[in-house]
Amino acid sequence: MPVLGFLDRRHTVAPQSYNRWLIPPAALAVHLCIGQAYATSVYKNSLIDHFDASQTAIGVVFSIAIVMLGLSAAVFGTWVEKVGPRMAMFTAACCWAAGFLVGSAGIATSQLWLLYLGYGVIGGVGLGIGYISPVSTLIKWFPDRPGLATGMAIMGFGGGAMVASPASRQLLSYYDGSYDAADPASLADGHALSLLFVTLGIAYFAIMMIGVANIRVPAPGWKPAGFDPSMVKQKSLVTTDNVSAANAIRTPQFWLLWTVLFCNVTAGIGILEQASPMIQDFFRDGDTSSVSVAAAGGFVGVLSLFNMAGRFVWSSTSDLIGRKPIYMVYLGVGIVLYVLLALSGSTSTAIFVLLAAMIISFYGGGFATVPAYLRDLFGVFQVGAIHGRLLTAWSAAGVAGPLIINRFLDSAGGAGTLDADSYRPALFTMVGVLAVGFVANLLVRPVAAKFHEDMSQHTEQKEADEAASEESQAGTEAGSGTVRLVLAWSVVSLLLLYGVYETVTTALKLFS
Question: Which of 107, 211, 298, 320 could potentially form a cystine with 509 if both were Cys, beta carbons 3.0 to 4.6 Å apart?
């Protein structure tokens, strides 16, 4: 078999005996790596100092990456479905690693445009393809618990920042002896930043290859033991029919869900983007705040934990109560939490932290639940491609959320002069945004039969998968048993445990 032939879809069709619990760690291996996108604040000030650039000029790097995430997910979604998850995950790994290496060259030569091209454009493409590549595969392996499956994977994206943040600080400290990882004001030099990007690029590529090696698509007709597909039809809004990606964007349901995701992300990302200064400003008395910089860093750690946990807990809960009801919780209870945060958040740090943490758990839950919601409405045929198109809502929200918050704060005064009153207009605006999303969710109905796909016209892929399944069944699947399962879960579990430990250690500063 040619080396790249290993990536062909026909070599990824699993034998009937393949253990489906190898698929979640394969997805986690990818999402834990690309989740680094949320950890760019660790070295942002160092980049500003190195390039002698403005906050905006460096912040654009992250914005480009998020915009490219949405665009590449939308553009390449159908391709991902066609070539299969292994080819897609390998492509994502190459783009993600190459983005860091090109970005490193930009830092080493002080060429900011190379950082834009590398981390922003090339890395952003890797972000988008990597984000959607395991989703439809997970849903096909877990038709009985799609919320649980997607929650496990997308939890990794939230956990990726928890791993990358402390690891980046420690690596910068190793590469630059004058850099103090414990001091938020310490700056690393350009040489250390360049080496950091090289290290992350190589390490992430190696970890993502674990996912590439273990990912499989189920054989046609496969189903988990004890699962009765006829029972699916009894659940509200859940279809056993299928809708193509091209037809999905013609349905009102797609655009209602686009609005739901946009509103949920806009509201959540507004807090995430301002987290550290926000808690200090809420408890400011004149020129000083009762919340120290270290404690504010602890608050960011708490939000990271709730962001990750919400992706798994709330998405899994949606399997029990349904996707539409869980979004009523995200948006409806979110409205109440935002009102309480605006009116009572400044009464005590405990109340502020609790309210903000719950809001962020809904933010994370919204990301993890939406693939299962799409599967319920549109079926499994091209759910990954549909998910890719829907993620343009994330790109739009990534611009709108911070813009809303920052516009209100700019009009209220400069940094160091803001207090709780300065944030209230922005928070009440977010209440309105969530209300729009709540109404959009209420309007979701089953997709009309005229949009359903005639699956008899799509037999070529099924026949190819059946032949590939027979071929893999006849051969031997080396290492697909207990040893491979233990090794795969051990790697992703150790990464998650490291991230949780470091984040909890940071979060404790908030209460010390």
Answer: 298
Asked whether the beta carbons of 296 and 277 are under 8 A apart, the reply is yes
Q: Above 60 in pLDDT, residue 307?
A: yes
Pairing of strands 284-285, 288-289: antiparallel
d(CA 111, CA 17): 52
Task: Give the pLDDT confidence of 258-275 residue by residue, as tens digits.
Answer: 999 999 999 988 777 788
Q: In percent, how much of the chain has pLDDT > 90?
A: 61
Specify the DSSP element, H or E, that contains 284. strand 284-285
Q: Give the max Cα distance, the chain.
A: 75
What token pair was written down for 110?
Answer: 């002080």
Contact 128, 388 (CB under 8 A): yes
Spell 289-317 as b/e; 16+ CB within 10 A means b.
bebeeebbbbbbbbbbbbbbbbbbbbbbb
Global confidence as pTM: 0.90
Q: How far is Cα 92 from Cα 388, in angstroms, rounded to an integer?
A: 14
- C-alpha span between 348 and 354 (Å, rounded): 10
Q: For residue 220, with 0-12 CB atoms within 10 Å meaning exposed, 13-18 middle and 19 or more buried, which class applies?
A: middle
352 close to 341: Cβ distance less than 8 angstroms: yes
For the stretch 150-163, pLDDT in tens is 998 899 998 898 99
- Integer Cα distance of 490 and 196 in angstroms: 25
Q: Is 340 exposed, middle or buried (0-12, 13-18, 19+ CB in 10 A)?
A: middle
